Amino acid sequence: MAREYRRQEAPSPEVPLESFRVNPVFRASGSWHDCGVPETVLLVDDHAGFRAAARKLLETSGFEVVGEARDAQTAIAAMIRLRPQVVLVDIQLPDLDGIDLAEVLFITCPDAIVVLISSRPAADYGPRFRESRAAAFISKSELSRDTLTALLHHS
Q1: pLDDT in tens, 10-35
Q2: Of 3.90.660.10, 3.60.15.10, 3.40.50.2300, 3.40.50.720, which CATH number belongs to 38-154?
Q3: How far apart are CA 62 and CA 31, in angstroms?
Q4: What is the value of pTM for the model shown?
Q5: How far is CA 130 from the centre of its chain?
């Protein structure tokens, strides 16, 4: 199956570039969605406290969190059932690395945007992130409406 790559433009000036890293392979062609920012989100993180905080932040920012998963197995089942537009995936999951999960999720639903999240900086993952099927990386400490919206407008 051929992969369609998406063009990356500079984020809006209100959101600092260091807030997120966009996978370079998504710089090749146009925006994923011509109708604006996606609305449905699946959260994948093994920490219930982070999922609850992220859900609250996203829902108060206008996103619809359609589901949560604590591990890769649950995430795959939720992806098939819910078909979210965006999936936020923690890199360190108990049963499968989030970078590897991004590949599975891409195969499961190639139209979804997979965004990796971690408490560690993107640089710690080096070429693994750049070679992954994830569209972008956001540090957990930088997750906000503005950061996610800017990333989705430009991925």
Answers
A1: 333 343 334 445 554 443 333 334 44
A2: 3.40.50.2300
A3: 20
A4: 0.77
A5: 14
